[in-house]
């Protein structure tokens, strides 16, 4: 995809809702298309992965592994982002990401994205606001999952 | 007490024709008449009072096809003494049945529109008759969208039917679980996360929701945020129904008796009451 095509794809991606054309253009200039086969590990827990993804097609599972088992805690698909923690550049990945279907995504170098945020605070504000929206949605979803709403009545959480 | 009132409060005998295991803790009972009198027909969303002799009476939503005459299906999760007794019945045994009772899903209001069905856990059971009815009158509606959330893959009800419904034209069926292992290749996460995969048409969509009350509240709020009017969002409430005819007051919710005025209400009606603590 050339920058013009990337711009059109990004313009329609839910993560960039509220972005102005110059900001979408900045994102387009930093994006490149990537593809993953089914059952491919995109990153592992603890990896220092510096890539931020916007998923265009396919499904990705976030997994946590424990002794003798792997738990899927969330699935992401078209319109979602993957790898938001790379934008904070604080520590490694919290979970493992594995594709459940062939996946097509746009990849961004997180260091470059952060530098652009520092240079253009308007862009930085929009990106961080979009990120906060995602993190907030994930937090709410996690809280609801923790309620274990579908457990039989009488099963007490605490 | 008048004769019709006595009839409403008197269980009619029904014979267990079959008990089918749906999941590790959920079963579907098929009841047929035991005394030669046909069992009363029902509308999707209605419930019966089932009386296990010697144990007690409990409200159970009807989960079968409303156009299948001569028998009634109930999908029951075995979680306590009464429900365990119910699902432990054997073919040939007799239970008492009162009803059907309650206000059904407003399928007539949805004609010419998309139907969005959001179910959580055992909440799919009271919605299945609505799906049967929608499929029977398929030309009356535009799209049929079913979103279903369950605790884990082994808790998903009616899996074969869900898959079959999803293959029909103008239909979309998405299931998600709170906890999934590696053999589960479907969605993991809360049911509202599935909204991202939909194109909703506010004003042209009627939503029917059934599941745990907190889940229904969250779903209703998020649908409103996506532009659906509260008058087009319907919830099926569960309360401690006893008489089922609006006399005893056990199932009172604000100004309503859930057994008589519900169990199906619009979110517009319920909004002041579903956020009140302890009601």
Spell out the CATH superfamily of chain A: Jelly Rolls
End-to-end distance of chain B, in Å?
Answer: 31 Å
Mind telling me the CATH superfamily name of the domain at 3-101 in chain B? Translation factors
How would you state the average pLDDT of chain A, rounded? 90
How many H/I helical runs of chain A? Answer: 4
Shape of chain B: globular
Describe this entry's structure for a reader.
The complex is a heterodimer of chains A (158) and B (279). Chain A has one domain (3-143): Jelly Rolls. Chain A contains four helices and eight strands. Chain A has helices at 3-11, 21-30, 110-119, 121-146, and strands at residues 32-36, 41-43, 51-57, 60-66, 69-76, 81-82, 96-99, 103-109. The longest helix of chain A has 26 residues, at 121-146. Chain A is globular and about 50 Å long. Chain A starts with a helix and ends in a 12-residue tail after the last helix. By secondary structure, chain B is an alpha/beta fold. Chain B has a domain at 3-101: Translation factors (Elongation Factor Tu (Ef-tu), domain 3). A seven-stranded mixed beta sheet of chain B has the order 10-9-8-7-11-12-15, with helices on both faces. A six-stranded antiparallel beta sheet of chain B has the order 4-3-6-1-2-5, with helices on one face. Chain B is globular, with a radius of gyration of 18 Å. Chain B starts with a helix and ends in a 5-residue tail after the last helix. The model of chain B has no long low-confidence stretch (mean pLDDT 91). The A-B interface holds A 14, 59, 61, 63, 69-75, 77-80, 100, 137, 141, 144-145, 147-154 and B 25, 77, 79-80, 120-121, 149-151, 155, 176, 178-182, 184-190, 192-193, 196-197, 211-212, 214-215, 218.
């Amino acid at each position: 995809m050339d920058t013009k095509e990337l711009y059109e794809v990004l313009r329609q991606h839910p993560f960039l809702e509220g972005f102005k054309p110059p900001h979408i253009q900045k994102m387009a200039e930093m994006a490149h298309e990537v593809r993953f086969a089914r059952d491919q590990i995109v990153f592992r827990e603890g990896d220092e992965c510096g890539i931020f993804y916007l998923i265009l097609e396919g499904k990705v599972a976030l997994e946590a592994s424990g002794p003798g088992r792997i738990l899927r805690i969330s699935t992401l698909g078209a319109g979602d982002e993957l790898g938001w923690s790379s934008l904070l550049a604080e520590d490694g990945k919290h979970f493992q990401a594995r594709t459940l279907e062939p996946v097509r995504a746009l990849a961004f170098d997180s260091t470059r994205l952060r530098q652009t945020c520092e240079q253009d605070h308007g862009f930085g504000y929009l990106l961080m606001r979009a990120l906060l929206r995602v993190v907030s949605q994930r937090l709410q979803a996690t809280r609801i999952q923790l309620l274990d709403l579908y457990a039989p009545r009488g099963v007490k959480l605490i | 007490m008048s004769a019709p009132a006595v009839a409403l409060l008197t269980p009619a005998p029904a014979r267990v024709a079959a008990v089918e295991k749906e999941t590790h803790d959920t079963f579907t009972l098929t009841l047929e008449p035991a005394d030669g009198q046909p069992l009363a027909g029902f509308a999707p969303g209605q419930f019966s009072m089932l009386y296990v002799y010697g144990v007690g009476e409990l409200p159970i939503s009807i989960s079968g096809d409303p156009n299948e005459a001569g028998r009634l299906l109930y999908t029951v999760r075995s979680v306590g003494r009464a429900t365990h007794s119910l699902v432990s019945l054997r073919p040939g045994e007799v239970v008492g049945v009162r009803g059907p009772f309650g206000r059904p899903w407003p399928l007539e209001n949805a004609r010419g529109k998309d139907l969005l069905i959001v179910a959580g856990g055992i909440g799919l059971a009271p919605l299945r008759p609505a799906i049967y009815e929608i499929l029977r009158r398929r030309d009356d509606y535009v799209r049929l969208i079913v979103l279903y959330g369950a605790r884990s893959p082994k808790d998903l009800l009616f899996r074969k039917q869900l898959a079959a419904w999803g293959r029909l034209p103008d239909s979309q069926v998405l299931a998600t679980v709170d906890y999934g292992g590696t053999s589960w290749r479907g969605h993991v996460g809360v049911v509202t996360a599935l909204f991202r995969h939909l194109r909703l048409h506010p004003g042209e969509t009627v939503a029917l929701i059934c599941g745990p009350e907190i889940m229904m509240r969250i779903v209703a709020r998020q649908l409103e945020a996506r532009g659906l009017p509260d008058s087009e969002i319907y919830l099926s409430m569960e309360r401690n129904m006893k008489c089922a005819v609006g006399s005893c007051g056990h199932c009172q919710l604000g100004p309503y008796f859930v057994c008589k005025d519900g169990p199906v209400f619009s979110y517009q009606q319920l909004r002041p009451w579903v956020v009140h603590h302890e009601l």
